[in-house]
């Protein structure tokens, strides 16, 4: 049998401050993390505070579309 939409989906978290800084000046890169979320428990976008190796500090990483 074919499954419908999976409950657990893989999402990509991207640093929000690196994305903003890349417009103004040359960016060395954009920090991204891969994680999973339960679609039923968290229908809206995820935001976590994680370490960004390009900013050298903990910043907010938000969910992006694939």
Automatic annotation (TrEMBL):
<protein>
    <recommendedName>
        <fullName>Large ribosomal subunit protein bL33c</fullName>
    </recommendedName>
</protein>
<keyword id="KW-0687">Ribonucleoprotein</keyword>
<dbReference type="InterPro" id="IPR018264">
    <property type="entry name" value="Ribosomal_bL33_CS"/>
</dbReference>
<comment type="similarity">
    <text>Belongs to the bacterial ribosomal protein bL33 family.</text>
</comment>
<dbReference type="GO" id="GO:0006412">
    <property type="term" value="P:translation"/>
</dbReference>
<dbReference type="GO" id="GO:0005840">
    <property type="term" value="C:ribosome"/>
</dbReference>
<dbReference type="InterPro" id="IPR011332">
    <property type="entry name" value="Ribosomal_zn-bd"/>
</dbReference>
<dbReference type="GO" id="GO:0003735">
    <property type="term" value="F:structural constituent of ribosome"/>
</dbReference>
<dbReference type="GO" id="GO:1990904">
    <property type="term" value="C:ribonucleoprotein complex"/>
</dbReference>
<dbReference type="InterPro" id="IPR001705">
    <property type="entry name" value="Ribosomal_bL33"/>
</dbReference>
<keyword id="KW-0934">Plastid</keyword>
<dbReference type="InterPro" id="IPR038584">
    <property type="entry name" value="Ribosomal_bL33_sf"/>
</dbReference>
<keyword id="KW-0689">Ribosomal protein</keyword>
<dbReference type="GO" id="GO:0005737">
    <property type="term" value="C:cytoplasm"/>
</dbReference>
<dbReference type="Pfam" id="PF00471">
    <property type="entry name" value="Ribosomal_L33"/>
</dbReference>
């Amino acid at each position: 049998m074919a499954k419908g939409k999976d409950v657990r989906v893989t999402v990509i978290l991207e640093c929000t401050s690196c994305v903003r800084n890349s417009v103004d000046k040359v960016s060395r890169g954009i920090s991204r993390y891969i994680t999973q979320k339960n679609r039923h428990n968290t229908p809206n976008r995820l935001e976590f505070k994680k370490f960004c190796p390009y900013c050298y500090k903990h910043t907010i990483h938000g969910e992006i579309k694939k």
